[in-house]
Amino acid sequence: MNYKEHVDEHLLIDYAKDQLDSDKRTEIIAHVNMCAQCQTNLKEWELLLNREQQIANDPSPYLKTRIHHSIAKHGKPKRTIAFKPIFASISGVMIVFLCVLLYINMRAQDLTYEVRQNEEIGESELFNHPNTNRLDIIPASTAQNVSGNVWINNATNEMLVEVQGLTHLAERDYQLWVIHSNDQFRSELLQLQNGTAKVYYRGEDLTKLERIKASVEPLGGSDKPTGPETFYVNFTR
Q1: Which of 26, 93, 148, 216 could bridge across to 137 with cysteines, CB 3.0–4.6 Å?
Q2: Cβ(190)–Cβ(114) under 8 Å?
Q3: CA distances from 145 to 42, 140, 219 (A)
Q4: One Pfam family, short name please (predicted)?
Q5: Given CA atoms 28, 34, 35, 36 in this order, what sign does their dihedral have?
Q6: Which residues, in sequence order, are CB contacts of 49 under 8 Å at separation 6+?
Q7: Backbone phi and psi for residue 102, each to the nearest 5 degrees, phi listed first
Q8: What's the 3-state SS for the chain?
Q9: What is the pLDDT along the chain (237 residues), one digit of tens a residue?
């Protein structure tokens, strides 16, 4: 295949994640070698994906604290039991696996929200309420065409996210993550309409809101953020 203009971003993502067959990789790299814009885009995706992987491999302070508290609670063993190396390795893997499951489960606890998107939202007094604050959406470096606003009102426990400029992805979904200060989160797959999405939230948990962000995820979404960010908003309390 000859790319007359530029390689689609979802193909660059798959290339960077080494998820393409050899023929497709050869086609893409042949174009990238002759296209400065695609070279830049590919490097940015590789940097973003590498950064996401580094973050995923580094336990959060919350997880580290939980592990330290567990050790302090149960204390050190009074004697050391010698295991053969193979059993020690298996035990270590099992402990790490259980810690990861515990961490994901604690973060993904269900948050109480009423959620609606696009036409489901209807009319709202949120815009005219005196306690409503408006924040600008901040696009990621690879999504400079993205813009929008977030309206949030702690008095009525409402939030509305409006975003424009999202590129259609045939084999990916945009997933919106609502992250709280206690490390809990919930997510929604954005329902795009001509590159635009609106999401309405209502619930008492909004008072603990710390950050929202959108990331590119596999079709159907992910249990936790894995793809590069598209936009984000940080909240200060």
Answers
A1: 148
A2: no
A3: 17, 9, 22
A4: RskA_C
A5: positive
A6: 13, 16, 17, 227, 228
A7: -60, -45
A8: CCCCCCCCHHHHHHHHCCCCCHHHHHHHHHHHCCCHHHHHHHHHHHHHHHHHHHHHHCCCHHHHHHHHHHHHHHCCCCCCCCCCHHHHHHHHHHHHHHHHHHHHHHHCCCCCCEEEEHHHCCCCCHHHCCCCEEEECEECCCCCCCEEEEEEECCCCEEEEEEECCCCCCCEEEEEEEEECCCCEEEEECCCECCEEEEEEECHHHHHEEEEEEEEEECCCCCCCCCCEEEEEECCC
A9: 555 578 887 888 888 888 889 888 898 888 888 888 888 888 887 877 776 565 555 555 544 554 455 555 445 444 444 445 554 555 566 666 666 555 555 444 445 668 899 988 887 778 888 889 999 999 998 889 999 999 999 888 899 999 999 998 888 999 999 888 777 888 899 999 999 999 998 887 677 888 999 999 999 999 888 989 999 999 875
How far apart, in whole angstroms, are the C-alpha atoms of residue 150 and residue 3?
37
Contacts 24+ apart (CB under 8 A), 73-78: none
> Tokens 């979904």 sit at which residue?
173
Q: In whole angstroms, how large is the CA radius of gyration of the chain?
A: 22
Beta bridge partners of residue 186, listed in sequence order: 178
Identify whether the C-beta of residue 106 lies closer than 8 Å to the C-beta of residue 183.
yes
Location of structure tokens 């400065």: 36
Structural domains of the chain, with CATH: 9-57 (no CATH), 61-107 (no CATH), 114-234 (2.60.40)
